[in-house]
Amino acid sequence: MNEIYKKENSEEWMFPQDAFILSETDEHGIITYANDVFCEIAGYTVDELIGEPHNVVRHPDMPRIAFKGLWDDIQTKGFWTGIVKNLRKDRAYYWVYATVLKRVDSKGEISYLSIRTVPKRQDVEVCTKLYAELKSKE
Ligand SMILES: Cc1cc2nc3c(=O)[nH]c(=O)nc-3n(C[C@H](O)[C@H](O)[C@H](O)COP(=O)(O)O)c2cc1C
Question: pTM score, two decimals?
Fold first, then answer.
């Protein structure tokens, strides 16, 4: 049982340190797999997530440039890591430390895999300021 909880006096939701969010997409970023922790922390059922574009959890506080970096890196280097603020179905949010990997199967078909864990609080604080600054310049 995963202990997902909302922080007191805050719109932030947390998931356990030893848990991880796992999702897979096709080459266009359409979700093809979501684990239980992803469903629970984002507030959706698995059926609501499969077939949706991964930007279903995009938070309006995230600057566009962060995702440009994600897509550039996964296409050229094959991986990306970063701190992301995500939106829940109920409009609250959760932070993740995300790694996204590109996979190419034997038929040449591309898919992407993302594993997300609890970020360090210090990184969340740095990114909160950085993203607000970047967002103000958009
Ligand atoms: C495997 C994978 C995982 C992703 N995870 C997230 C995520 O957790 N949150 C997010 O906002 N975007 C995530 N993205 C990026 C989205 O596809 C999308 O580019 C982003 O939300 C920005 O939305 P936009 O492209 O409509 O501007 C992920 C993409 C891939 C391929």
Answer: 0.95
Burial profile 86-119: b = 16 or more Cβ within 10 angstroms, e = fewer: bbbeeebbbbbbbebebeeeeeeeeebbbbbbbb
Residues 91-131: tens digit of each pLDDT = 999 999 999 999 999 999 999 999 999 999 999 999 999 99
Atom of ligand 1 nearest to the CA of 25: 1
Q: Which single residue is written with the structure tokens 């340190």?
A: 17
Which residue ranges form the domains of the chain, and what is each CATH number? 17-136 (3.30.450.20)
User: CB–CB of 40/4 below 8 Å?
Assistant: yes
Smallest CA separation from ligand 1 atom 4, residue? 54
Residues 118, 106 contacting (CB under 8 angstroms): no
Q: Does the CB atom of residue 44 touch ligand 1 within 6 A?
A: no
Distance CA 80, CA 61 (A): 20
